[in-house]
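Newbie here. two chains, one complex. Structure please?
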Amino acid sequence: MLLIKCPWCGERDAHEFSYGGEAHITRPENPDKLSDEQWADYLFMQKNAMGPFLERWVHAHGCRRWFNVRRDTVTHEITAVYKMGDRPPERTA
Amino acid sequence: MPKSYLRQSALAHLHLEAHAVEVAGDAGVDLCERPFRGQLVLRGDCTDNAFRDAVQQALGVTLPVEPNSVTNVDQVSVIWLGPDEWLVVVPDGHEQAIEQELREALAGIHFAVTDVGDSRAVIGISGPHARDVLKKGCSVDLHPRVFGPGQCAQTALARCHMLLHQVNQAPTYDIYVHRSFADYIWCWLEDAAQEFGLAIIAQAPGASAGARAPESEPVVPA
């Protein structure tokens, strides 16, 4: 069982959460001025990193709030959980 | 023309009263439906003192700011749903008056209050093995060390969204599920409770927060 620590509800089973993909992708300010290629890049292209990865989750079966997680995509180890709008905490290790 | 609207609880079709025992005996698990509760969803900014004070003034209950906690006074309970969202459970028939009191007290403050009616059905479970039944379908740690009276959790029971509220030490729990899932969850609970001995209680065992002492019999279809 993978436990994810919701910033409000605490540690809960992963099946209560839904995944939201890579975090900290900024929406372009003027989508109308972008080429199709640039827009597609914003919409679809994610880093798909192997190792520590900053991503978004929502506590769908709980408080229904979005938050950010730093998860190792190889080991599933979660090394940070922080609220929307916050910067990722410095890595200690 | 129908004379009146025949209001049915979510589990009326099961005719639980026909299976119910008068008083709780020595069954391991007691189950009951707790029909007809007034339910309001309240939203607002709990970091704003004015909002908290106004809610306290309107409901006579302190707003639970701590995640997964419940406050109650008499028959009004306020259940934490999110950092800016609460479920206010009031006796049946009082929801409009209480909504009005909230609107008056909160005038000028950014808030939302919505009467959600019977959107959630409530099932009461108690008895020495109530926790064992819930553990079969719920991944939240319900050990008394970490989950006790006055606490709530939104989670899943048997893969169905559930709002769980521990009412007392017995333990007694109130299970809030969306109305269309009530039949499924009731059947699941009956099945899960078989091995411990199950009693269906007509009236909610023990006084519980938000439970209604019926002033008049609910309308049941003939």
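Moderator note: The first strand of chain B starts at residue 29 and ends at 33. Chain B touches chain A at residues 67-68, 81-83, 85, 139-140, 153-156, 161 (CB under 8 Å). Thread marked as resolved.
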